[in-house]
Every structure is written in structure tokens, then in C-alpha cells.
Amino acid sequence: MSGTHNWTLTPKSGDTLSGPAVLDGANTSDFAVVATATNVTLSGLEIRNYIAGAAIGAIHTPDPPSATGWTLNNLQVHDIGNGTTNGAGAELASVGMSSVAATSTPDKRASPPVKAPRTSS
Asked: Nearest CA to 48 among 13, 19, 14, 11?
């Protein structure tokens, strides 16, 4: 896969989705990937600008979870949420992830951290 796409993907069991590619929800799509299959690999993707709600991931696992054996490798997932609530990159607790090697990128829409004032000694 290559290029930039505003897609929601639902991989089949055994699929490998690899980049370099960008999945950009353009702040209009809820999910980049819906996890319902088994033994799927996501690799070399940037996932950004999806509007998943609070504690819901751009890599989304519907309830009840049925996905197991997923491998996440070299992903950059950032700017997830609807502006009011922060979404998650992936819902890992409900999916049997076999391997996770993801890159954490700060949300570019978030406010910068506030530094405490220096005290003199």
C-alpha cells in the first residue's frame, strides 16, 4: 500500500497491510482499521486525523472482540479524537496482540505542556 488515503479498512484473517502509506481520516472518519479478523499484521503506516471518541482507538475492536494474533509494527498513530475527547491509537486490551512495536507521536493538536516556574535558591 502507498500514498495517502481516507479509508476505513477491515482486513481479513491472515492479511498484511504494509506501507509506507498514510491513512488520514481528515477529521471526518471514525476508524482507520476495524479489527475483526485473526492473525493480521499492520506495518509501516502513519494513521492520523481519525475522530474516534474517548478511549476508542483509530484501530478499533468492535464489542464483543473477536480479533486475535495481531502484530503492529512501526506505526505512527497521532491526532486521534474529536477535538473534545482524546481517542486512542489502538484498543489493545480487547485484542490479542501478538507483537507491538509502535512509534508514539505526540498529538499535534494538544496544548504544549506547562512548565513550572523556576525557583531561585
From this structure: 19
Cell numbers linked to 2: 502507498
Q: Measured between alpha carbons, how far is 117 from 33 in angstroms, rounded to an integer? A: 42
Dump pLDDT digits (tens) for 28-60: 999 999 999 999 999 999 999 999 877 788 998
Kindly report the average pLDDT of the chain as a whole number: 79
Q: Is 49 domain-assigned?
A: yes
Question: What local confidence, expressed as pLDDT, does residue 97 receive?
Answer: 53
Residue 34 belongs to domain spanning: 4-104
Domain-located, residue 33: yes
Full-model pTM:
0.76
How far apart (Å, rounded) are the C-alpha atoms in residues 43 and 32?
13
Task: Decide if 42 is inside a domain.
Answer: yes
Task: Provide the 8-state DSSP code for 116.
Answer: P
**Cα–Cα distance list, 96 to 24, 40, 67, 103 (Å):** 25, 11, 7, 19
Number of structural domains (the chain) is 1
**Average pLDDT for 77-81:** 88
In a domain, 61, yes or no: yes
